[in-house]
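Structure representation:
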Amino acid sequence: MASVNKAILVGNLGKDPELRYTPSGQAVTKFSMATTDRWTDKEGGKKEKTEWHNIVMWGRLAEISSQYLKKGSSVYVEGRIQTRSWDDKDGNKRYTTEIVGSQLQILDRRSEGGTTAVAPSAPAEEIAPANSLESVSGNNNQDDLPF
């Protein structure tokens, strides 16, 4: 049976991206992203709930996100959900769930010199051939993560 692991998020960065390089030289960027759900309750009151997501970008997408994104940037991120585990310094098993981004589109409109320009977008197809997931998502060896 076939399966699908795909996440699509539109939201805002909670902090500036952190660009690092693995010992093998692969670029990797990590940042948090908030998505907010808004609704009206039965009494007519406005409600909202914010969810925070950990995003990881590899390769050229990591470099682009580091160069063009900052805290508060509005972005579209598409990728796969991944859960990693490790043992902390006390020997406890720890887990984290993150989105490994394969596509990124910057949604911010920036005003420079009185004109409005759209920041560049970086879909995965422009970064690497469609059949080369390794070059889009980078080295998937979790021991190589610099975080």
In short: The mean pLDDT is 81.
